[in-house]
Amino acid sequence: MRKWGKQVLLAICDAEILGKTFRESGKVLEVREEFYKGVRTSIDEAISLIDQSTIVNIIGCNTVKKAIEKGYVHPEAVIEICGVLHAQIVKM
């Protein structure tokens, strides 16, 4: 979690894909440690932080599916690259 003024950015990823890059059909998905590495926590705890955030980046099948299950992400708003799911939330 990072804060800039009134904005709160939350970056969540599945632990097993941290530091990896996925490429498919001209699309690139980088799970950079500089951006995603932080406090290691349970999926449920990470997803609960969405309520406190204004911008959210979620990468990984486990975390994206949990965000869908909890109603934070619409399934049609998810992209998939090399079988890895990615979603973004922006609260206005």
Written account of the structure:
- This protein has 92 residues and is of the alpha+beta class.
- The chain has one domain: uncharacterized conserved protein from methanopyrus kandleri domain like (uncharacterized conserved protein from methanopyrus kandleri fold like, 2-Layer Sandwich), CATH 3.30.1860.10.
- It is built from three helices and seven strands.
- It has a five-stranded mixed beta sheet, covered by helices on one side. The protein has a two-stranded antiparallel sheet with strand order 3-4.
- The two termini are 18 Å apart.
Coarse morphology: globular
Shape-level CATH architecture: 2-Layer Sandwich
Could you name the ranges where pLDDT drops below 50 across 5 or more consecutive residues? none
Strand order of the main beta sheet, please?
1-2-5-7-6
What name does the CATH topology carry?
A: uncharacterized conserved protein from methanopyrus kandleri fold like
Rg (CA only):
13 Å
Cα-to-Cα separation, first versus last residue: 18 Å
The CATH class is identified as Alpha Beta
Oligomer: single chain
Main sheet makeup: 5 strands, mixed
What is the typical, i.e. mean, pLDDT? Answer: 94
* Relevant CATH superfamily: uncharacterized conserved protein from methanopyrus kandleri domain like
DSSP strand content:
35-45%
Q: Structural class per helix/strand content?
A: alpha+beta
Helical region count?
Answer: 3
Number of domain units: 1
| Helix/strand order | EEEEHHEHEE
Report the strand count: 7
The share of residues in helices is 10-25%
